[in-house]
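Re: folding output
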Amino acid sequence: MKTKILLVEDDQDFGMILKQYLELEDFEVAWFKNPEDVVNILTADFYFHIGILDIMMPNMDGFSLAKIILKEKQEFPILFLTAKNQKIDRLTGLKIGADDYIAKPCDPEELVLRIKNILKRTTSSPLEAQVKIGEYVLDSKKLTLTHPKGNIRLTIREKDLLLYLLKHNQQTIKRDDILDNLWEINDYFTGRSLDVFISRLRKYLNYDPQIKIQSLRGIGFEIDFPEK
């Protein structure tokens, strides 16, 4: 079965080029120029494996559309297309729950590689669906982190990072290793977003004082979770 891509791009020429190239790479592409048309099919005909959303669009930007999609389809992978190539755009997209971003005009081969990397991460999990973490239970399928004091909804990136940390329990993990091995992108922007995600995980896990994620300046992180 072909991978089905939701492409939302209002630029006629650029959208056509992307659609044609992705189809040559054996993807099935549904191209929408109007984000509102995507909203209309969310509850019925939404059958895609991944979404590629332009950020700058009239009436509704890509960030707003992503929030609507992820409210209905929490595990849906999203890659943003950004013409600005600015730090704030990239961090905003990652905070919303997107899996990646690429600056326009993008190299089609790089775009395909990023799509395949996202799908590889989101269709396989290094640990079982439910994992006990001290007083918490992580459900990697439902993207939830449950504690007796409350439930937390995770983004896909938060879930992937938490699973990676669990896999390297009681080890020192280099920042570069996380960026290279987990997200396969190692630049200033993903480095800053990694710090954001680490801070979030600390906040989520602070009900259990046995769980420790310590930052080592210039190196990375030291991880200590209670044994499962």
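--- second protein (sequence, then structure) ---
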Amino acid sequence: MKLFTEDQLFRFGETTYERGGSYGPLRGPYLWLAMIDAGRSRLDIDGRCVELNAGQACLVYCREKVLQRFPGDLHCHASWCETGEFLDTPDNQRLLQRSFGAFDASARLKSLLGMGLELEKEQPGQAEALRDVLAKGVFYECFRQLGLLPERAGALHRSVARAKSYIERHYAAPCNLDEIAAYACLSA
């Protein structure tokens, strides 16, 4: 699954709505993670609605139009991670369709979003690369939490991967099992 380009740009943000308000409408295709830290909101995404309460998040994938509304009777605080264009392939469309709806934000997701918000305050040019890698982590954490990450075929245990790396880097020189095992932190 490849959802983003190598040079994908992301933004983190947060805002407070004291007396109601709205965000949008935004025209698609568009992808963002919306999280409600306090209060609640209603998202209208391509004619479908999602209600978010405090502590909940939603992967917002819109093809046409999205609008987020905040009630006037509550103090509401929202945070987000967004990207405009992404790899809008048929496979990614199916994946994102399956992610529709509110879910309880994990502690990890809240932490990643908080770190992204801190990086957003850095001087321009200082932290964009780290911010963008972190943002990808935000989206992949959502997929992990929703059970939508595909199984990685051929994923190696960390020790086996270290041993393989050692062999690949030292293939021209004689090496023995004891050296490989020591590098991989294993016994021969």
